[in-house]
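Try this one yourself first.
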């Protein structure tokens, strides 16, 4: 087998479509779909789980301890605003483990790390409906476990992207992979809205079915991931020799090195790097306003616009669909511009991030101006436009984070999202404290605070941001020139493509022991 690989001719390019690495990006995308469904489900279900002060249900009996509940109506809970905030932020508390998981992500087997992440998501969602009737603390703990799954998945996927994709393909890969968050949210919000409605409550039990469905989806993704994924290209069953050699050659130019041969993590250099902390701060400012989009948007539509549960779910999914399209299109555009020499990496990241932060801040600030039922269409349009701008952060700061030090991308991603999780916890608790009655005035305060934070990277990331590989990111002292910028890649042969498809069709009869 080894002798056969040595005789394979390596072309200058292995095109990304069709390719095994593109297929692998879709596998990672599926994992983020499962994660998003398992995390975003709380935003729609919370509207149905919590009793409203102005509930139409009344008790004609004199005894105050007796409660009249309609038939087939799922149980609701009298959680306070601070308790709701803690449940919303439980996932972020679990995500704090990303600092530890990110530290080890570049050393651990990414495939089995993601398997563990899926298990956490499956268990935490499957047990939540039963636990909600027992204790609020149990619900918080299960949401905490969901966050632990996120803490395992995000750094592992970032580390695997640097192993599977050459530098100039990474913006596109990030767009596809992280777009799974929006796809998952796009799926669960309308489905959750229907399950919370009268029809869903009658046939499927209402909001508990949202969490059971989330577990089933994660379990299906887990099976697909175990069968078809691999930690790195050389371990994948279906990759062609030409594509594997191409990926290896391109990544070797970055001096990433093998995990076992890699030097210890340069903590001092990372923690004192201006480029790292500027990117971390920009990520925080990007994630801060998205808390509204991902967690509180159904509540805004219910409190201010008065939409029904079914319509709420459908409308809440629209901004997520726009965000997904924006991420994919802008990431592909960024890859094209940098690969063809129209922009340098840092220039591309700064421009995309500038447009993203400015547009997001303006749109969020303008949303409260349309906070009436008669203006609901305009409010939805503005929120969709805000998400279109937010998608440009993917080829912006998120790409910069994985380009600064590809060999330690898991560590840097872990630090970045740990800090972002801390601010998300603060943001969710702050929003829950502000929204005591859910009035338009309270929502205006929430939107204006988020708009102020969103617009900050326009200034500091544009001045000090960077996507160039740092000096301490290499295993060797001398850093060779980026040969990837000079090589003009040509298409791979048709026979390699046919061979790859043949391997996929023969997967079930493939000898696993030989390929390992």
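Now uncover the answer:
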């Amino acid at each position: 087998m080894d002798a056969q690989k040595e005789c394979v001719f390596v072309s200058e390019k292995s095109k990304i479509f069709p390719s095994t690495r593109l297929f692998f990006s879709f596998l990672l995308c599926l994992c983020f779909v499962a994660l998003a469904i398992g995390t975003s489900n709380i935003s729609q279900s919370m509207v149905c789980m919590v009793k409203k002060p102005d509930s139409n249900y009344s008790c004609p009996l004199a005894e105050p301890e007796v409660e009249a509940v309609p038939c087939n109506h799922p149980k609701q809970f009298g959680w306070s605003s601070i308790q709701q905030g803690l449940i919303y932020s439980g996932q972020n508390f679990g995500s704090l483990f990303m600092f530890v998981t990110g530290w080890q992500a570049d050393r651990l087997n990414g495939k089995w790390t993601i398997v563990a992440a899926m298990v956490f998501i499956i268990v935490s969602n499957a047990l939540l409906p039963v636990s909600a009737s027992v204790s609020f603390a149990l619900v918080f703990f299960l949401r905490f476990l969901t966050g632990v799954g996120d803490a395992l998945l995000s750094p592992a996927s970032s580390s695997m992207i640097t192993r599977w994709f050459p530098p100039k393909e990474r913006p596109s890969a990030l767009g596809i992979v992280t777009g799974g968050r929006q796809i998952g949210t796009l799926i669960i919000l309308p489905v959750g809205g229907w399950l919370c409605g009268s029809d869903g409550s009658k046939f499927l039990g209402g909001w508990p079915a949202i969490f059971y469905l989330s577990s089933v989806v994660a379990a299906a993704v887990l099976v697909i991931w175990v069968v078809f994924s691999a930690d790195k290209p050389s371990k994948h069953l279906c990759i062609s020799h030409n594509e594997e050699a191409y990926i290896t050659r391109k990544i070797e130019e970055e001096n990433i090195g093998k995990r076992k041969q890699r030097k210890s993590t340069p903590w001092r250099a990372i923690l004192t790097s201006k480029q790292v902390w500027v990117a971390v701060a920009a990520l925080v400012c990007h994630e801060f306003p998205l808390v509204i989009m991902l967690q509180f948007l159904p509540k805004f539509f219910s409190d201010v616009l008065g939409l029904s549960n079914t319509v709420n779910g459908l409308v809440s999914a629209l901004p997520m669909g726009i965000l997904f399209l924006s991420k994919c299109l802008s990431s592909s555009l960024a890859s094209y511009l940098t690969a063809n020499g129209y922009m340098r990496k840092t220039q591309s990241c700064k421009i995309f991030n500038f447009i993203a932060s400015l547009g997001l801040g303006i749109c969020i600030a303008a949303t409260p101006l349309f906070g009436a039922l008669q203006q609901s269409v305009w409010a939805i349009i503005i929120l969709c436009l805000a998400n279109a701008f937010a998608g440009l952060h993917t080829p912006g700061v998120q790409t910069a984070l994985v380009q600064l030090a590809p060999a330690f991308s898991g560590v840097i991603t872990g630090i970045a999202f740990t800090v972002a999780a801390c601010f998300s916890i603060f943001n969710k608790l702050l929003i829950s404290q502000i929204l005591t009655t859910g009035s338009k005035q309270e929502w205006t305060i929430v939107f204006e605070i988020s708009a102020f934070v969103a617009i900050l990277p326009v200034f500091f990331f544009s001045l000090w941001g960077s996507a160039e590989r740092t000096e301490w990111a290499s295993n060797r002292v001398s850093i060779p020139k980026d040969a990837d910028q000079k090589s003009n890649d040509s298409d791979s042969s048709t026979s390699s493509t046919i061979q790859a498809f043949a391997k996929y069709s023969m997967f079930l009869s493939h000898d696993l022991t030989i390929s390992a």
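Discussion: The chain has two domains: 17-53+75-254, 273-473. Residues 1-11, 55-72, 476-516 have pLDDT under 50 and may be disordered.
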